[in-house]
Amino acid sequence: GAVVSQHPSRVICKSGTSVKIECRSLDFQATTMFWYRQFPKQSLMLMATSNEGSKATYEQGVEKDKFLINHASLTLSTLTVTSAHPEDSSFYICSAIYGQGYGYTFGSGTRLTVV
Amino acid sequence: GENVEQHPSTLSVQEGDSAVIKCTYSDSASNYFPWYKQELGKRPQLIIDIRSNVGEKKDQRIAVTLNKTAKHFSLHITETQPEDSAVYFCAASRVGGTALIFGKGTTLSVSS
Predict the structure, then answer these.
(1) How far apart are alpha carbons B112 and B40 in whole angstroms?
(2) What confidence score (pLDDT) does residue B95 get?
(3) Which residues in chain B have Cβ-Cβ distances shorter than 8 Å to A102?
(4) Residue A11: strand, helix, or coil
(5) How far B17 CA sits from the closest chain A CA (Å)?
(6) Do B44 and A44 touch (CB under 8 A)?
(7) Which of A23, A86, A88, B99 has CB atoms 3.0–4.6 Å from A94's, for a disulfide?
(8) What is the dihedral of CA B76, B81, B87, B92, to 10 degrees?
(9) For residue B21, what are the contacts with CB-CB under 8 A and spacing of at least 6?
């Protein structure tokens, strides 16, 4: 149980274009989802927290106009990287809380390469 | 906000030895401390966790200890095996809706 499906797993896009990453909770309702970015050989850095039906809360230093997060339903949160640049190339992974609040489940991640 | 420090960044041990990874956290309100193992390009995999009302938890060769007063927690792996080689992350959060904040990770290498 508590599965989060993340798509796409890999995407290559050209500089200046936008890319949308989806995370869908398959067997539970995800009121809250978290988005992380992980550069090679580094840790998972929290980008933002999204709550269903409200605006996302972004961490300091994360541009909200560049990384658009939408959490319009209890089962779907999306991250759109707008006007992508090569420095946005990274591993993006979502996470959701389930159960009584101690359970964190992760998507399988998206490897974004901007060329 | 929460800040989690993790040491060491790399750790090399011989097969059969013990390995210890230590983390400290800054937010005294944090009450959930999981440890993850992550393979390259994959999602983190939970290996053990501890809540703040417990001082120690063990699962076969893996144990986690928590010192709330000092705000640090540690992962102990005994009788290490080559397949334990991986990147390990500690994390901390406040139960109830806050995100996990991760340490910088430890690359464990177990040589046979």
Answers:
(1) 22
(2) 73
(3) 32, 49, 51, 95
(4) strand
(5) 25
(6) yes
(7) A23
(8) -20
(9) B6, B7, B8, B11, B35, B74, B75, B88, B90, B106, B108
Task: Determine contact, residues A94/A79, Cβ cutoff 8 Å.
Answer: yes
pLDDT for res B25? 97
Q: Quote the percentage of chain B above a pLDDT of 70.
A: 100
Length of chain B, in residues: 112
Residue A97's nearest CA partner among A23, A33, A21 is A33
Which band of pLDDT confidence, cut at 50, 70 and 90, is reported for residue B110?
very high
Residues in B closer than 8 angstroms to A44, CB to CB, are 44, 89, 100, 102
Q: Which residue has the tokens 């200046």?
A: A16
In the numeric block, which tokens belong to residue A69?
């997060």
| DSSP letter for each residue of B35-82 | EEEE-TTS--EEEEEEETT-SEEEETTEEEEEETTTTEEEEEE-S--G
DSSP code of residue B15: T
Encoded tokens for A39: 């550069």
Q: Could you report the per-residue pLDDT of B10-39, keeping only the tens digit for each?
A: 999 999 999 999 999 999 999 999 999 999
Residue with tokens 């640090």: B72
Ranges of chain A with pLDDT below 70: 101
pLDDT at A101: 63
Model confidence at B108: pLDDT above 90:
yes
What's residue A15's pLDDT?
98
